[in-house]
Amino acid sequence: MATIGASRLNPIHPATVLAKVRRYEAAGFRAWPAAAVHYDGTWVVRLTAGHPAKRLNSINPLDPGDVHHLAERIARAGRRFEAYGRPLTFRMSPLAGAALSRHLDAEGWSRFDESMVMRMPLTKASVENVIDQIPLKDIGRFVSAALKVHDADPLLRPGLSEIIGAIQPEAGLFASERGDEALATLICVHDGDLAGLFDIATDKSVRRQGHGRQLILSALKWARLRGAREAWLQVEADNAPALSLYASLGFEEVYRYHYRRLPST
């Protein structure tokens, strides 16, 4: 599949290309739901008081041609973000288009945290000899494990629990544990023929020991048995160890996105 880089946007993408991007973007919204969602034209404004993640607190443009009254709409969105105590942030996929990018450039918006969307046909997943692993049913137990391996603020527990509880497609909560010690965690969201992998992390004390790889393979086997035909994930473009792992498993880049903010925020 051809790579579509948000950093290499052409003024016009073929409709078939944008349709592929929209498919993954919609799956991502369903798999990692924001607490509040507003629409301004084809901009999806996602806000979440209980969790600061950028993908849960950002404007997501879905049509390159929707660039009317930009200053007014950005100001309106800014008031929403201010009410939530979040910095006004755009998440720029290829669906954002070149015209909006030029406008933000002209206004001095900074660009940061480029990420990749990667995919792999599950026919390529070598899971035949992988031990079956049953996902956790206890959200609280999973959240405890995830906060540990991410070395995250315990105050995020209520927000992360709310997000996981709000996932509408079937979600498998996977954790690799040694006794009571969490080693790695991930969420696999089975949505039709797609299996999205989210929040993948390994505790820093046991990295490069294969725990993440084995957990991913267990999740892919679980999803394939449920009818998923394609796995996909999002990863920061400068995360070299993760990119190496995903490439070794057979994942390939589909497109990129990045975030934009005013320097003062």
Mean pLDDT: 93
Structural class: alpha+beta
Strand segment count: 10
**Beta-strand share of residues:** 25-35%
What would a concise description of this structure say?
This protein has 265 residues and is of the alpha+beta class. The protein has helices at 15-31, 70-84, 97-106, 139-150, 157-166, 211-225, 240-249; strands at 36-40, 43-47, 58-61, 90-92, 110-121, 170-178, 181-191, 194-202, 230-236, 252-261.
Q: Would you write up a description of this structure?
A:
- The chain has about 260 residues and is α+β, with helices and mostly antiparallel strands.
- The chain folds into 2 domains: about 5-115 and about 255-260, no CATH class; about 120-255, Aminopeptidase (3-Layer(aba) Sandwich), CATH 3.40.630.30.
- Helices cover about 35% and strands about 30% of the residues.
- The protein has helices at about 15-30, 70-85, 95-105, 140-150, 155-165, 210-225, 240-250; strands spanning about 35-40, 45, 60, 90, 110-120, 170-180, 180-190, 195-200, 230-235, 250-260.
- The strands form 2 sheets. The protein has a 7-stranded mixed sheet, sandwiched between helices. A 3-stranded antiparallel sheet has the order 1-2-3, with helices on one face.
- Helix 4 (about 140-150) packs across helix 5 (about 155-165).
- It is globular.
- The chain starts with 14 loop residues before the first helix and ends with a strand.
- This is GNAT family N-acetyltransferase.
